[in-house]
Specification:
about 375 residues, 22 strands, 10 helices, 3 domains, about 25% helix, Rossmann fold, D-amino Acid Aminotransferase, Chain A, domain 1, alpha+beta, nine-stranded antiparallel sheet, Dna Ligase, domain 1
Length: about 375
């Protein structure tokens, strides 16, 4: 930024959940004044920011009025009113990632078309208007149906195994995607500032909770072949360059059993697949996002140690005031870092926190992480 912002910049974040909370923890280091807009009066950020406003992220007037007196706005969730952000941009408020990028990523159909137009490898797909179109799709069964808009954290995704299941398919505009027989789900987080500098974090490997379709277990850095890591890194950099994004971008990919890399989805913000960077890398993803949007030199992404991240999800069958079991036991082990998100209430599979396990011995880090999964529980 042109102005000397340290201590005077007014930064707005749309969304007051755990990502906003961890961004605030980094922003404090820059003396930045943080303003939060979130629809939940009990949002995790409510007591940590300079100003908290409870209001809709999708309402034009609410978003516009929230941002009109700020210097800069960023997001921790994509489901926001982009028209308001465009107006704010036109009036001189810096919006990063840019509103045009948020609009693109809000629509999974537009994302897929962007991949195709820019020669980004992705699974074959077809856009449909109604579920009746599923009877005539060119994508062979079984396939994946994804809502074009409003899908989040595994919601808005269905596997259709046979024509008999089409009756239970989504009614809304969707995309049909070929089912990928993948070996691994992998991700690269890339950052780009307004000067055009680009930096990537080392490739990570992910495991998903099959019931909740959420990242449950992440291992960094990857031990996949160097060629795979290099190709994934180059794909992430190309996407950031093609988009001309300012900020952080998580690129989620599949590694097929034939060794091919296919891009699945993008997230233009700090992401679950980067939480390990707080303890595992020289620069965290949250610090890197702020460096990028403030147009500062990007930080080194070098790995400090093997790091395994697990999500703390609300236990099935429990709903109500959150209670944490096993915290003292896991903190007694060296190299275990617990992050609780300040959410008052738990429900099945709600993200309540995460744990990062670091160790110079990769296998021991994984073993300790499996033990934490069995020991640390969120109940009510």
């Amino acid at each position: 930024m042109a102005k000397d912002f340290y201590g005077e910049l007014q930064l707005g974040i749309l969304g007051g959940g755990q990502l906003g909370r961890m961004l605030i923890q980094e922003a404090i280091n820059y003396n930045v004044n943080v303003h939060i807009l979130d629809p939940d009066k009990n949002a995790p950020c409510r007591k940590l920011c300079n100003r908290f406003e409870c209001g809709s992220l999708s309402d034009f007037e609410t978003v516009y009025n929230f941002g009109k007196d700020l210097d800069m706005i960023t997001i921790e969730i994509e489901k926001v009113n982009v028209d308001a952000l465009e107006k704010l941009e036109n009036e001189g408020v810096l919006v990063y990632p840019q509103s045009r990028i948020i609009r693109l990523i809000q629509d999974k159909g537009l994302q897929k078309q962007f991949f195709k137009q820019n020669d980004i490898p992705t699974a074959p797909f077809q856009l449909i208007s109604t579920k009746e179109n599923l009877y005539e799709t060119s994508i062979p069964l079984p396939y994946i149906q994804k809502l074009r808009k409003d899908g989040y954290d595994g919601k808005g995704v269905k596997k259709i195994n046979s024509t008999s299941e089409i009756e239970q398919a989504f009614e809304e505009p969707s995309l049909v995607e070929a089912l990928v027989d993948f070996e691994k789900e992998i991700a690269v987080i890339v950052a780009r500032n307004d000067k055009g500098e680009i930096a990537t974090f080392p490739l990570v490997e992910m495991e998903f909770n099959p019931e909740a379709n959420l990242v449950e277990f992440l291992i960094a850095p990857s031990t996949l072949p160097f060629e795979v890591q290099t190709q994934a890194d180059e794909i992430a950099k190309k996407i950031a360059e093609d988009l001309q994004i300012v900020g952080l971008l998580a690129v989620e990919m599949f590694l097929t059993k034939e060794g091919e890399i296919l891009v699945n989805e993008l997230a233009p913000r700090p992401h679950n697949s980067g939480h390990h960077t707080i303890e595992g890398n020289i620069t965290s993803q949250f610090a890197q996002h702020l460096r990028a949007i403030f147009n500062l030199p990007l930080g080194a992404t070098t790995t400090r140690s093997n790091a395994v991240m697990i999500n703390l999800l609300g236990e099935p069958r429990y709903e109500g005031l959150a209670k944490y079991e096993g915290v003292e036991e896991v903190l007694a082990i060296e190299g275990i870092f617990v992050h609780l998100y300040g959410k008052k209430y738990t429900k099945p599979f709600r993200k309540m926190g995460h744990v990062c396990i670091v160790n110079d011995d990769r296998e021991l880090a994984i073993k300790n992480a499996r033990w934490v999964q069995e020991t640390l529980k969120v109940k009510a």
